[in-house]
Amino acid sequence: MFLPPLWKNGHLIASCLLLASCATVPLNREIETGPVITAGEIAKSNARTAYDAVVQLRPLFFQTRGANSILLPTASVPDVSVDDSPTGDISTLREIPAADVRDIRMLDRWEAGRRFGGKHDAGTILVRIRIGGS
User: Does pTM surpass 0.90?
Assistant: First the structure.
């Protein structure tokens, strides 16, 4: 079988790996990914809790994700973090007054894993709380 010289010695593969390893990840924690519910949207919705706001404005945040593999055959739902601290499941949102919320973001599984470590197969709902009325 004929292979070009670059393939034969693995040079092309090594070059690709080297270039891929040079990619950078932003360190600014304010750079977010995924859909966002803003304080303005929450105020207009007249929601009483963060849970109510999500139900009214972005119900797909609660969407159950299907089985992830043969080894993990059960479906999963997103977990919740408040101000970058993991707090539990979606029932936690019922305890957060909507008026206290700065924004609510849906982080996909990759972003959640990068921020919080571990497995977040269905992603994470990140709630950021207003501090001092800001």
Answer: no
